[in-house]
Amino acid sequence: MSWVQERRIGEFRVTSLTDGQFRLDGGAMFGTVPKVLWSRVTDSDDLNRIPLRVNPLLIQRGGENILVETGLWDQGGEKFDHMYAAERDESVFRGLEAVGLGAEDIHLVICTHLHFDHVGRSVTALGEPTFPNARYVVQGQELHDARHPHERSRASYIPQTFEPLVDAGLFDVVEGEHDLRPGLSVLPLPGHTLGMQGVVLRSGGQTLVYTADLLPTLNHAPLPYIMGFDLYPVTTLETRRRYFPQWAEEGAVICTPHDPHVPFARLTVGERGAFHAVPDAVAVSP
Ligand SMILES: [Zn+2]
């Protein structure tokens, strides 16, 4: 089965893409949750790394093509690819090609945050914007923090993935919740970073949420399953408590940036109020 799947959300056509697989330390991915618990829901390799994907999302309506996230950094050479076990079995470009699009057809790129596994394909090896006709949307807080990293945040930000976009004046910097188009908005989801944002589509009585790293994979749905990577984990918890009940109640389609298997899901509330994320397999052909 191809990873590329399409859904309709009212007027929007939404296509799940993938920029391949990678691996991160399982302990870091599950924070305070011990391995005795997380090993029940995911495999790990002999270096304790768990399988993940990088999952950009394509949103289309009325001839406009909007990309949420650009992929995993591809200019780190063998050392980088080895450290993160990058398997470039698929790419965001092949996914776009599958729906008849080239890089030049993207009009808008939404950056949830500026970590290398989210904006890694935004700039070519020549230092030019990968999507030459696109503007790039980011929260002001995120752009500031990415450009002023500290010892705890520095490893996640690679200046050459975003500085050329700053130089070219291609960022549309937004502050807080912001309507980008009718039915399409960005929503601050602080915690993983202070300036992270999600993407919300509402059309035809349906809702879709791109969760960014507030919910990195389906296995992270229980409220305390918060990554050790998060800079403000208690803020992550507050953000989850604020939005998970709402998304579950309205039956929103959930897209996560790193689930290795499932492009579309829904949040449900199980026994004793615990959240689960379940695959939403209803794929609608265009
Ligand atoms: Zn991530």
TrEMBL record:
> So what family is this one in?
Belongs to the metallo-beta-lactamase superfamily.
Protein's name according to its UniProt entry: MBL fold metallo-hydrolase
Q: Which SUPFAM superfamilies does the entry link to? A: Metallo-hydrolase/oxidoreductase
Metallo-beta-lactamase domain segment(s): 53-258
Q: Which domain of life is it from?
A: Bacteria
Query: Which InterPro entries does the UniProt entry name for this protein?
Result: MBL_superfamily_lactonases, Metallo-B-lactamas, RibonucZ/Hydroxyglut_hydro
What is the organism field in this record? Answer: Deinococcus rufus
Which PANTHER family has this protein been placed in? QUORUM-QUENCHING LACTONASE YTNP-RELATED, QUORUM-QUENCHING LACTONASE YTNP-RELATED-RELATED
Q: Where is the signal peptide?
A: none
